[in-house]
């Protein structure tokens, strides 16, 4: 969208509504008094006309009144021409010929529906987000897009789909070390989503206040497969730690026996001892001792 032709909000200074209300009531009372005097004088035409004029002006004064709540604005137009936006609070007054459209400036929530999209690896995932937004420029929101609320919802879903395709769901061997993922980098992903939403909302004069993922999971057709993969990775990681610890313990045991001179072991006996200790330390079941009454060679 060409920024030079984008309509921007213009401030409108309205009049205190209480003054307009008082003026309207005074004019109506004055009109009633003048009409009554004209009727008492035998229906004097000049007084009747003057009284009707006063009454018409008083009605116009009252018709120009409108009320704005905190964080609410009024967009004023005259015969299709944008006049300005009034952000004042309380009872206000403007020319009754102005068409006044109220527009909330409060923060609003949009809960995106759960979308099925492909992540960076091409795996189908389910993702959803909650977006907090508010109108920043009332003129853009009303005149630059047809329906800014629908615009926000459509652009939020599009941004969420695009975001999911930029990141992998979870870490893996095919990804560089430290790369951000949807599951592991929630804060980074939320910041990226907010920035993309702000860029998309700019044309409608809408500000993205906050954005957070509310749902993230593998799609049902691959959920069981990916769960088994995660379980396998967890088992492998645990086994690696167990083996590393067992090797350290065996090394420490052999070093202690050698330094204290408790027993002299040749290479074959050391190999047998290492094998037995690793079986005991790495086994996920209880081991049963076997009593050897002979020697290693008999």
How many helices?
7
**Largest sheet descriptor:** 4 strands, antiparallel
Question: Using DSSP, what is the number of strands?
Answer: 10
Q: What percent strand?
A: 15-25%
Span between termini: 91 Å
Mean pLDDT: 82
Order of helices and strands: EHHEEEEEEEEHHHEHH
Computed structural class: alpha+beta
Helix content: 40-55%
Specify Rg, calculated over alpha carbons. 39 Å
Q: Which stretches are low in confidence, meaning pLDDT under 50 for 5 or more residues running?
A: none
Please explain how this structure is put together.
By secondary structure, the chain is α+β, with helices and mostly antiparallel strands. The protein has seven helices and ten strands. Strands 7, 8, 9 and 10 form a four-stranded antiparallel β-sheet that branches. Strands 1-5-2 form a three-stranded antiparallel β-sheet. A hairpin with a 5-residue loop joins strand 8 and strand 9 (124-135). The termini are far apart. The model has no long low-confidence stretch (mean pLDDT 82).
Feature tags:
four-stranded antiparallel beta sheet, 10 strands, 21% strand, three-stranded antiparallel beta sheet, 298 residues, alpha+beta
Describe this structure in a few short sentences.
The protein has 298 residues and is of the alpha+beta class. It has helices spanning 17-40, 45-63, 138-143, 148-164, 186-201, 220-260, 267-282, and strands at residues 15-16, 65-68, 72-78, 81-86, 90-93, 99-104, 108-111, 115-118, 124-135, 206-218. The protein contains seven helices and ten strands.
């Amino acid at each position: 969208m060409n920024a030079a032709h984008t309509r921007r909000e213009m401030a409108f200074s309205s009049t205190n509504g209480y003054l307009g209300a008082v003026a309207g009531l005074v004019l109506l009372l004055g009109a009633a008094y003048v009409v009554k005097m004209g009727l008492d004088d035998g229906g004097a035409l000049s007084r009747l006309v003057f009284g009707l004029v006063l009454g018409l002006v008083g009605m116009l004064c009252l018709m120009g009144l409108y009320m704005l709540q905190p964080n609410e604005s009024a967009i004023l137009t005259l015969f299709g021409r944008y006049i300005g936006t009034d952000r004042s609070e309380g009872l206000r007054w403007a020319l009754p010929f102005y068409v006044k459209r109220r527009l909330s400036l409060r923060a609003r929530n949009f809960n995106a529906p759960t979308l099925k999209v492909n992540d960076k690896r091409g795996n189908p995932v389910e993702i959803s987000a909650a977006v907090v937004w508010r109108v920043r420029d009332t003129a853009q929101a009303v005149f630059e897009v047809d329906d800014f609320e629908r615009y926000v919802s459509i652009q939020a879903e599009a941004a969420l789909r695009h975001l999911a395709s930029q990141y992998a769901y979870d870490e893996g061997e095919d990804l560089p070390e430290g790369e951000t993922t949807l599951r592991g980098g929630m804060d980074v992903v939320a910041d990226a989503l907010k920035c993309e939403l702000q860029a998309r909302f700019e044309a409608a004069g809408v500000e993205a206040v906050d954005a957070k993922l509310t749902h993230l999971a593998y799609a049902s057709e691959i959920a069981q497969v990916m769960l088994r993969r995660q379980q396998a990775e967890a088992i492998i990681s645990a086994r690696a730690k167990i083996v590393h610890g067992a090797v350290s313990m065996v090394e420490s045991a052999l070093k202690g026996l050698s330094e204290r001179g408790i027993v002299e072991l040749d290479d074959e006996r050391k190999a047998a001892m290492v094998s037995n200790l690793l079986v005991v330390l790495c086994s996920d079941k209880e081991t049963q001792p076997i009593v050897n009454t002979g020697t290693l060679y008999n």
